[in-house]
């Protein structure tokens, strides 16, 4: 199976149902038959501050009026002609269908969905993760100690192991899509680029993902599978350890980076000042030939994951030689979505 700004609005969400009719309902399909069939009851909520923004929309915090629970709402505006809107809704239905079937501590929890009556927007309600993204942590702390990186990486792998077992490739693993709660639990989010893949050797040729973290075979559109997520994990380690994504020492232009990745014969520059086990782990993930990359299960048995890392403040063992500049990566347009 598989691969090894602030607003003040009051909204009512009516949960989608396959028996519902009318434009305000979402009826999702599940081509792989893996999604849960029932959504929770209607939710009345009040929209709060903007907490994130990505290729597919903006994410706001929201307050459940009845329960007082803090949630997150991903608001996606639909624009363009009728055919464009239909395509966008179809894509969102696929994301919703996929989200409904995911239940894991390292994956953000889906609650419910609403399509506006005028068909101009869709709201996806999810659990609120108070720590924000790992990217936001890096913007505040610049880089992470190897011990922290190890803790986060283990959880990223556990989330991906669950996805790959269910035949799902995420296709946009990066620090901006990794959320952290107040207890240090990492949760994979933003499944707008994700896809069911029924067979471990099935190869998808669409261009999905973000250039700095994208695997060479994805950039080349030569076909990709779960191994593309493995490459992205290696890229995330570079980002967490240095504060910057791979290739940013060469170019800060996303289109240029896409060309670099498509034509590279070598992995991106690895950070110095980290343990041999960490270097070995990144090297395993960043094999240009996807056939040489390990599976998630194999990565979970590596020394970097299994061996204890001792933090010794006086020695500052995390003496990484960073790239020339730690910049706010959120200011750069980096996500590419092409069919």
TrEMBL record:
Q: Which GO terms describe its molecular function?
A: ATP binding; protein serine/threonine kinase activity
Q: Read off the Pfam families from this record.
A: Pkinase
Which CDD domains does the record associate with it? STKc_MAPKKK
Keywords for the protein's UniProt record, in alphabetical order: ATP-binding, Kinase, Nucleotide-binding, Serine/threonine-protein kinase, Transferase
Compositionally biased residues, Low complexity: 11-29
Tell me if Transferase is a UniProt keyword of this record.
Answer: yes
Bias-annotated ranges (Polar residues): 1-10
Asked if the record carries the keyword Membrane, the reply is no
Domain Protein kinase positions = 45-305
The UniProt entry, under InterPro entries, shows:
Kinase-like_dom_sf (IPR011009), MAP_kinase_kinase_kinase (IPR050538), Prot_kinase_dom (IPR000719), Protein_kinase_ATP_BS (IPR017441), Ser/Thr_kinase_AS (IPR008271)
User: Where is ATP annotated to bind?
Assistant: 74
The entry sums up its family as follows:
Belongs to the protein kinase superfamily.
> What name appears for this protein in its UniProt entry?
Protein kinase domain-containing protein
